[in-house]
Amino acid sequence: MPVVILLDISLLSAMPVVILLDISLSMMLPLVKTTPAIKLAVKGINSLINFVKKESRCDRVALLTFASLWEIKSPFTRNYDEVITALGNVKEQFDKSFIYAGLQGAQQVVLEEFNCSTFVQIIVVGDGIYLQELQGPDSNVQFPFPFPCSLHFVCLNPSPSPLLANLVARNGGRGRVWQPASVCQDRDITALFDDVAKSVLTPLGGQLSFGNLSSDVIIIPLLLKVVSLKIKIVGFLDHSSLAMPGIASKHMIIAATNSQNQGEDHLRTPSFCALLHGALVTQSKDGNPLAALVKLDCAETNKTFEDWYGFVVTSSEKTSGEGGKRKSNLVLCVLPKGRECVPWLGDMTKLNPVCNDDVPTGTFPVMSRGAAKSYKSLPIVWLYDQGLQADVSKLLRCVRKLPEKKEAFLKEVQRIDTAARILSFDHLLLALSKILERELLSAASQSASAFITQAIETFKSTANDIS
Asked: Residue 77 is inside which H or E element, if any?
């Protein structure tokens, strides 16, 4: 039976960006001649958003303002013109500047929109004058942040408060305090925001190659701590041979374009990404879609990995708009580090091409002896209440038909447990545990009680891990 790998690429987003703007009264003081700091900050943020709009259009940007309280001016969106409009509507200034209030707002906005594994860039723009004795308690802000992030303070004053460096250190050292060389001229502030944009908001570039064919690409979202990346295709497999291995992360592959080759000239330029996409949507002799097995040559900030593999597949998403057409993309699925990252394929370095048709059927992929049967299935998407209610109802129907429906029951337990872990939905697992405990009282047999008890222990264990 063909196995099709489905990926929800609508969840693939470049690193979200949260921009915090200080609108306290101190921002009304002039810095460059008679220009107040708030105008310089607004101009700099406009340049950051325009950089994202030009270089990395998949970034979601949110704009917040803060003084003694924080306020959302624009929620996470890819409509950058909307963010710029919201920034232009910032007119009022408030009392004292509480940096902890702004960071609390950033944490809350991110946790409401994304899960705890999404890497976020937080950029705080202000004059940099924050006195520790005037900031009040920081009990409402969790350090380090409950999600991976880089914390950047863009200070318009060349002598920022030492408190900012302390906050970066409390976040695990991820981030930096940016300051201009001087504020005597407007170009010093402009150069400051240009440096921030190039260092913080530049997407990860790489190279996708197969023999003599290659193409410069952009990887979205970033591979954390990776500073250089080369994706080398080493072969092709059909989905039935690859099956559904556990993956470390998923990334969208987008062909990189030069700013000089836009418009019609860009459409006429041959692209290896387009060629690869066309090759992968074709089917093998058995009627299965193909996947490209790749080796990742990448270096982190302090070490290099030699045995790191993944695979590239095609996946489609429905575009927004009246037409509702489906757009197909290349998706890189990164496997865990090591040569034997897929047990049934064995050592990746010992895979050889099939040169003839004499290979007996049913011998590939090679399964390990004693390997337990997997009940993993396609991922769950809980966008609406009806989807969650339907999955819970299906689980309860399987419970009442145990032990005959044991495979379906274990499959549903695995699906819900995995989805709840990804979404940090511990309350759901605890509620399901209580429901199953009530069902345990009316279990049809001892075997059914054993399966229900196992599911209760699984849900409670995952809920404890999340909390």
From this structure: strand 70-77
